[in-house]
């Protein structure tokens, strides 16, 4: 494993490359307000982050990544357009995989620019790719926005769409909801028994838990209403399954997706963005004919990505996490912007893994 001084030296070299491209150096505090991340991701983030309590500042979290604090900083007082770069430690609990590091250095490059999102996507990808050239990595790309558009276009209720959207980053839960909403699986007996009751549920037995009576009754009523909704059609389900299974090089993936759009027309604008991005990547010298594209790629990473996503992997070392990764997070700027928003995309590298692979190849 590379020593700390070598990692810091390589991080500095990487950051200088991004500075030369126009990145303004930023250095968010190590301790971040936990409330912001909990509001964004719910209690799930606690399983991945180190949380502490400060008597004056309340609940704090050791920086799990740079993107959220950089977005907060930009939305508060950033200029437009803007490019940022940074390097420093991030902290992730690894209780399920103790062999993975819980503290490591991350170097990143972020673009906030509303004029040409396809060009910004291509710039970030090409800049990151330049830093890892010669490492024999596989580049994978995807676009979370395509599946989001497909869900929003389904012929079902807004409540069901919202439930699916919440779980796009949890593929197993997403699949279970699809199976339920399409009628492919029967409701559990406990749910059937609940739905067969009439009137308010609260007050009929001892109440346990933190939910109020009104919250419980509202939830039961919502489940009753949902039980009367027509299932998602088999035609839409087959189209969704075909969509999520697309895994090809960019040109062939786009061709398959255009065919699927006949049954899922809501994805057409997202496909137009994919086509524009492919052209912008090609203009920067990226061989899109050999670039992998997977519709489901990125669905288990940070939940703020809502468009283009990418990662660089050492196929000879499947035990390693991505050497570099990134994506588009427009919705995050809207969530943190207090009414303002701006298209944004960024990527990060792991200098420790870069050094490790260089040493193995030497």
UniProtKB/TrEMBL annotation:
Record key words, sorted: Glycosyltransferase, Transferase
Coiled-coil stretches: none
InterPro entries to which the protein is assigned, alphabetical: aa-tRNA-synth_II, aa-tRNA-synth_II/BPL/LPL, HisRS-like_core, HisRS/HisZ
Domain spans labelled Aminoacyl-transfer RNA synthetases class-II family profile: 18-351
Positions contributing to L-histidine binding: 65-67, 92, 106, 110, 299, 304-305
Biological processes, Gene Ontology terms: histidyl-tRNA aminoacylation
Keyword Transferase: yes
GO cellular component: cytoplasm
UniProt keyword Lyase, yes or no: no
GO-annotated molecular function: glycosyltransferase activity; histidine-tRNA ligase activity
Pfam families, per the entry: tRNA-synt_His (PF13393)
Subunit structure: Homodimer.
PANTHER family: HISTIDINE--TRNA LIGASE, MITOCHONDRIAL-RELATED, HISTIDYL-TRNA SYNTHETASE
Name listed for the protein in its UniProt record: Histidine--tRNA ligase
Organism: Parasedimentitalea maritima
Organism lineage string: Bacteria, Pseudomonadati, Pseudomonadota, Alphaproteobacteria, Rhodobacterales
């Amino acid at each position: 494993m590379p020593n700390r001084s070598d990692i810091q030296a390589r991080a500095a070299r990487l950051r200088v490359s991004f500075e030369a491209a126009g990145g303004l150096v930023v250095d968010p505090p190590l301790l971040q307000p936990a409330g912001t991340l909990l509001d964004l991701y719910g209690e799930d983030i606690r399983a991945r982050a180190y949380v502490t309590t400060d008597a004056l500042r309340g609940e704090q979290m050791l920086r799990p990544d740079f993107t959220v604090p950089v977005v907060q900083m930009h939305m508060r007082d950033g200029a437009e357009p803007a490019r940022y770069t940074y390097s420093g430690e991030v902290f992730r609990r690894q209780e399920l995989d103790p062999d993975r590091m819980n503290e490591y250095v991350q170097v990143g490059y972020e673009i906030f620019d509303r004029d040409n999102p396809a060009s910004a996507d291509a710039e970030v990808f090409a800049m990151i790719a330049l830093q890892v050239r010669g490492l024999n990595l596989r580049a994978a790309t995807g676009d979370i926005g395509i599946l989001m558009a497909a869900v929003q276009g389904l012929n079902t209720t807004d409540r069901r769409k919202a439930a699916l959207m919440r779980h796009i980053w949890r593929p197993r839960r997403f699949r279970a909801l699809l199976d339920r909403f399409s009628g492919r699986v029967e409701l559990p007996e406990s749910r059937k028994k609940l739905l067969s009751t009439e009137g308010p549920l609260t007050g009929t037995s001892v109440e346990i838990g933190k939910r109020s009576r009104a919250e419980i009754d509202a939830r039961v009523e919502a489940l009753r209403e949902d039980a009367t909704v027509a299932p998602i059609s088999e035609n839409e389900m087959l189209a969704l399954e075909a969509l999520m299974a697309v895994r090809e090089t960019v040109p062939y993936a786009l061709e398959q997706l255009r065919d699927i759009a006949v049954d899922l027309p809501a994805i057409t604008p997202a496909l137009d963005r994919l086509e524009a991005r492919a052209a912008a990547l090609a203009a920067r010298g990226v061989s899109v004919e050999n670039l992998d594209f997977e519709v489901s790629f990125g669905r288990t990473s940070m939940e703020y990505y809502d468009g283009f996503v990418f990662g660089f992997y050492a196929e000879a070392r499947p035990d390693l996490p991505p050497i570099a990764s990134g994506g588009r997070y427009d919705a995050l700027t809207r969530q943190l912007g207090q009414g303002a928003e701006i298209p944004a995309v960024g990527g990060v590298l792991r200098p420790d893994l870069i050094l490790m692979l260089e040493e193995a190849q030497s």
